Amino acid sequence: MRILADLPNNSRSCLMVEPLWALFGGVIVYFAPLYMEGLGLTSIQMGLVNSAGLFFSFFFFILSGPFTNKFGRRITSLIWDIVSWSLSMTIWAFAQGFAWFLVAALFNSAVRVVMVSWNLLLTEDAREDQRVKIYGIVYLIGSTGGFVTLAAGLLLQRFGVVPTMRVTYLLGAAFMTTMFFLRYKLTTETENGRLILEKTRGTPLLRLVAEQMTSLARAARDKHFFVLTSIYLIATAVQSFTFFQILYLKDGLGYSTAELSVVPAVNSLITIFLFSVILPRIPKTAERRGLFLGFVLCMGGGLSFLLLGRGMLFVVLFVQGLSSAAFLLLSTYRDSVFMNSVPNEQRAELFGLVNMLAMLLSIPTGALAGWLFALSPLAPFIAVAGLFALGAAATARLMSWHRSEPATTEERS
Fold first, then answer.
1. Cα separation of 191 and 3, whole Å?
2. What pLDDT, on the 0 to 100 scale, is given for residue 76?
3. Is residue 319 part of a domain?
4. pLDDT of residue 220
5. Which structural domain range is residue 99 located in?
6. 309: buried, middle or exposed (CB in 10 Å: 19+, 13-18, 0-12)?
């Protein structure tokens, strides 16, 4: 574990237990559309479930910053991870139809609170120059789940999608719950988290929520906050549209479940190459350039997807692998740019706010993606390429400001 040796304890501990999530996280995300289809959901209903999840997520993001500051990074992550993953995985395991997925979407949306608390627990004690490395390792660990997905795909082919996924969800709930308690045991509250815990002692949670709304009004006038929000919005919206990729490849182009199960494994190989060979060669001070490169590569992958056809499995594997690795690269630099762009005391609050706004604006995208897919299977992927182009333009704007007028702490707050 020498690669983790120079990292602070919290970062190292979070990374050490992350494989317990990666074992099942990739499987459930990748095969979820097939599972929903197997239980009789239409593409419109799947889109509505996704939109419902985004709608619920908006309200959880309102709580995320205040709850994290009031109760601390560790306990917040433990409580809401159990709600969002342990409970939702169990509901998915026993799901019978559309209503079950709506309820699971409600519980799983609570992960938005964890997105704030866990990101802070993971990186807040680290130096700015370590954060790209930390996020790179996180996404690298996540990508290794592609090899588990390959094995799961063979089981799906042998025993059927629905029974195999039911067992997978139950096992995932057990492994993830174990991870949550292990992480809580191994970590301590961050230095900045302890200061904010003391500062918010005796302050009611609802008052913190109200103060956050005041901060939102202030932040909305900051051009840097506006652009960062648009970047998070694009990354969130894209996932609603790419949700239908596996259905298009299976039902539209005729690839089997076994063939499609190879896709995540190839994604993992390309991601490992990108993060272990290419990423270290990008200067740590070039976060915005790395983000721009991620958007450009994702746009290229989206456009290439439009050219896929039957009998092109190796091309499908390459395009999907490149697109997946590029999106992880984009996410690595997106989060690093944000964490290094805001003052310590406002990090939880502003991270919650930028994600809350992105989530609010992306609520219609789930239903829109389902409607577009029903209209034309390629329509969602045309939208994806367009969104990535907008993301590249927004990042270019951010880069120009960074070169000509670096934001001060006052400007960013």
1. 23
2. 95
3. yes
4. 64
5. 8-404
6. exposed
